[in-house]
Amino acid sequence: MSDINNPNPSPERAPERKTDRWLEPGPTNIQVIYILYLVSFVIGITALIGIVLAYMNRGKAEGWVESHYIWAIRTFWIGLLFGFISMILMMVGIGFLLMFAVAVWAVIRIVIGLKAVSNNEPIANPQSWML
C-alpha cells in the first residue's frame, strides 16, 4: 500500500556536503595560506583571506603543522607592523628602501614555510621575528 501523505516512500537523501580538503587543517591548507600571502603582492586582499584561514585552523592541526600556522600568523602581523613603519618613514625617504626589505623578508619567510611543508617538516622556530 502506498502512503497518501508521502507519495515517495523512500526519498533519496542529499549527499552530505563535505568541505574541500584545502579548507581543513593540514598541509594543504597551510600551502594555500602561503600561496595567498604570495598572491597578496599583486592582489592585496588575499593576505586577509590567508590570515583568516590561519586563525580558523590554528589549534586544530597535528603537531608539526601547528608550527606553520604560528609562523604564517606571525609573518602576517610582523610584516604588517614593518610595512606600517616603512610607510611612516617614507616621509623621510628611507621608507622606500625599508618597504623593499620588508617585501624580501616576507617572501623569504613564505618560501621557507612552503619548503618545510612540502617536506612534511615543522618550522624550527615559529616564534622568530627573523628568518
Pairing-aware structural class of the strands and helices? Answer: mainly alpha
Overall geometry comes to: globular
H-E string = HHHH
Q: How many individual β-strands?
A: 0
Helix-residue proportion: 55-70%
* Rg value: 22 Å
Largest beta-sheet details? none
**Tally of helical segments:** 4
Low-confidence segments, given as residue ranges, are none
CA(first)-CA(last) distance: 73 Å
How large a portion of the residues is in β-strands, by DSSP E? under 5%
Q: What average pLDDT do the residues reach?
A: 85
Give a topology summary.
Layout: H1 27-39, H2 46-57, H3 63-89, H4 95-118
Helix pairs in contact: 1-2, 1-3, 1-4, 2-3, 3-4
Could you name the key traits of this structure?
131 residues, mainly alpha, 4 helices
How would you describe the overall organization of this protein?
The chain has 131 residues and is mainly α. The chain is 58% helix and 0% strand. It is built from four helices and no strands. Helix 3 runs antiparallel to helix 4. It is globular and about 65 Å long.
